[in-house]
Structure formats: structure tokens, C-alpha cells
Write a structure and sequence with these properties.
This protein is of the alpha+beta class. The chain folds into 2 domains: about 230 residues, Hypothetical protein, domain 2 (Endonuclease III, domain 1), CATH 1.10.340.30; about 100 residues, Nucleoside Triphosphate Pyrophosphohydrolase (Alpha-Beta Complex). The chain contains 15 helices and 7 strands. The protein is globular. The structure holds iron/sulfur cluster.
Length: about 350
């Protein structure tokens, strides 16, 4: 730990910051991918891309990003939209709380900032759902302000650059990484420097086998010099995942499926298969697993007869209209699986 702190302190002395930044910038101009959100300085579009890229791969995000901007081109349009429309356009990306926060952020920008993203990083960070990383990304990518960023890619690059052995998901590790990112980001050209660190982590300084032979900053890298790159970054041991069981009903009538709309914080506004209080004494039609925070959930779906009257928050949905219904991701997976089985047995 003392060694890591000393490494950060000596960063500006030990590393030649100017040559390091120059090497990053030259490589970025030469090798960076041409991604749609890199062609704009519009803070709204950059914010949308950053929120979508949380927990989702670049290739998956690209079509969703284009579709979102076509439907909600600016803060005003998004702020005026119904939440059901926002969730429907987000559908397929999962983690719907991101869409809700984006919607709330748009309303705040419209109501409190005259429809324009504030330039002050503290005000950006005060918007709903925006943390330190996203605020730094918007401030540097849209306004070229010297704000540091640390995401998973940047954390890996910095941990190796410094030969940092403290777990990067610990408080001490995070504070070391943010301190290093703050030292590294230049007064002018933060957009390029931050973009280069992220891109280097995505393309060269990759998790399992860093391509040090292709790395533009190899001569600055302490892990490369010490032969420790492949063993970094370190993370805290993961707690064992708790097991949860979820039992749901598959009730079909005249080409419609019975769904239940969620009102709790977890999936508010989304539809799912109706929950059963206990597991029936029959064989489930389908069983699948999905992760949820620190849990591994086993979802079992049982055939159930239709009952009337319908309970509150329950509704019949035509099977043909399900692509336009905001469903939770695991329940969409279950429904698609059951429908394709039904088609196969009918065919
Ligand atoms: S030299 Fe290797 S470990 Fe160091 S930053 Fe480059 S790719 Fe990563």
C-alpha cells in the first residue's frame, strides 16, 4: 500500500508527463475506432452514449444509440416524452434504471438549466444518475475540460502503468486511480487524453493478454518493466452469490399472454410473467438463471389456467405485440423461449 501511494505521488516526477500524453494522443489519432459518439461534441448525445455504454458492449450500443437519437434528439424531446415511450425505446439494452435516470436528467436540464447541459462538472454530476465517471466523460468529451475519468478500461491501464497492486475496487485503489487520472489529464486536450486511455484499455491493454508489443506507452509502463502486467489489475475477492428462486405463471388465452406490471423499485413500469407465491407441484415448462446484484436467481415458469377477474396491474397482451412491450430482460428471454418451443411443436 505504501508502495502504491508512493507510486502515485511520484507520478508527475517519475513519468515524463508530456511525452506520455503526446504518445497517447498520437496513437489515439492514428488508431481510435470511428464511433458515432466520437463524431459529436453535443453533450446530450455524449451523455446518451455514456449511459448506454455502462454495462453494455460498444457493438450492441451503436444501433440503439442511433435509434434513440432519432426518437429523442435533444433534452427537450426526451423530457417531454412519456416514461412508457422512453422504456420502449430503451428496450433490449436492459438495466432500465439507466433510461429512467436519463429521462429524469433531461427534465432537470430543461427545468433548471434552460435546456442546455451545464458546463460546470459539479452541476453535471448533480444530475440524476450521473456519477463521477460520467460527469468527467461529458465535461472532457463535450467541453474539453480537464476532468479525470476512471472506468474499467482506464483503471486497468493506470493500474498497470503504475504497477498498482492495491485492489482497484477497494477505496484505497479507487482513490489511487483517481489521483493518477487527475495528474495525467492535461489542461488542454483532455478530450483526446481521456479518449486515448479508454481506447488503449479497450484495444491494447486488454484484460487477459495485454498487447504490450503494440503499446504506444510501453516505455512509461511500470508493470511492463516489472513483468507484472498479466497479473494486474487486482480485485477484491468476490462474495459468494446467494441463490434465489422465482416462480412465475405462463397463462395463455386466445393468442394473448397474461403479464403483470411491476410497481416496486426493481423493475418499475416493466412487464413480466405473473409471480406465483409458491412453486406448484408440477414440472416447470422452463427454468433459466440470471444474475441480480449479488444473487443468482433461478426462474421457473409453470403453466397456469386463466382466472378471473384480473388482479390490479395484470393485463392480457397479444403475443404478436410483445416486441413493443417493455419487458424485463429475463422474462423476455423466458417468453421467447416458450414461444419458440410452441412454434416448433406446432410445426
Ligand atoms: S505496456 Fe502493456 S501493460 Fe503497460 S500499458 Fe501498455 S499494454 Fe498495458
Amino acid at each position: 500500500m505504501r508502495r502504491d501511494t508512493a507510486a502515485i505521488r511520484s507520478l508527475s516526477l517519475r513519468l515524463s508527463l508530456h511525452p506520455l500524453r503526446r504518445a497517447l494522443a498520437a496513437w489515439f489519432r492514428r488508431a481510435a475506432r470511428d464511433l458515432p459518439w466520437r463524431r459529436t461534441r453535443d453533450p446530450y448525445a455524449i451523455l446518451v452514449s455514456e449511459i448506454m455504454l455502462q454495462q453494455t458492449q460498444v457493438a450492441t450500443v451503436i444501433p440503439f444509440y442511433a435509434r434513440w437519437l432519432a426518437r429523442f434528439p435533444d433534452f427537450a424531446t426526451l423530457a417531454a416524452a412519456e416514461e412508457s415511450d422512453v422504456l420502449a425505446v430503451w428496450q433490449g439494452l436492459g438495466y432500465y434504471s439507466r433510461a429512467r435516470n436519463l429521462h429524469r436528467a433531461a427534465k432537470t436540464v430543461v427545468n433548471s438549466h434552460d435546456c442546455a447541459m451545464p458546463r460546470d462538472p459539479a452541476l453535471i454530476r448533480a444530475l440524476p444518475g450521473i456519477g463521477r465517471y460520467t460527469a468527467g466523460a461529458v465535461a472532457s468529451f463535450a467541453f474539453d475540460l480537464p476532468e479525470p475519468i476512471v472506468d474499467a478500461n482506464v483503471a486497468r491501464v493506470l493500474a498497470r502503468l503504475l504497477d498498482l497492486h492495491t485492489p482497484i475496487d477497494s477505496t484505497a485503489g479507487q482513490s489511487a486511480l483517481w489521483a493518477a487520472a487527475t495528474v495525467l489529464v492535461p489542461e488542454k486536450g483532455a478530450r483526446i487524453c481521456n479518449g486515448a486511455l479508454m481506447e488503449l484499455g479497450a484495444l491494447v491493454c486488454t484484460p487477459r493478454t495485454p498487447r504490450c508489443d503494440k503499446c504506444p506507452i510501453r516505455s512509461h509502463c511500470a508493470a511492463f518493466a516489472n513483468g507484472t502486467a498479466a497479473s494486474l489489475p487486482r480485485k477484491k475477492p468476490r462474495p459468494k452469490q446467494a441463490e434465489l428462486a422465482e416462480h412465475c405463471a405462463w397463462t395463455i388465452s386466445r393468442g394473448r399472454v397474461l403479464l403483470e406490471q411491476q410497481t416496486g423499485a426493481r423493475w418499475r413500469g416493466l412487464w413480466k410473467l405473473p409471480a406465483l407465491p409458491t412453486a406448484p407441484h408440477t414440472t416447470p415448462l422452463l427454468t433459466l438463471e440470471y444474475p441480480f446484484t449479488h444473487h443468482r436467481v433461478t426462474l421457473s415458469v409453470f403453466a397456469q389456467p386463466a382466472r378471473s377477474p384480473l388482479r390490479e396491474h395484470f393485463a392480457w397482451h397479444p403475443l404478436a405485440s410483445l416486441p413493443g412491450v417493455p419487458l424485463t430482460a429475463p422474462h423476455r428471454r423466458a417468453i421467447e423461449n416458450l414461444r419458440s418451443r410452441a412454434c416448433q411443436s406446432a410445426g
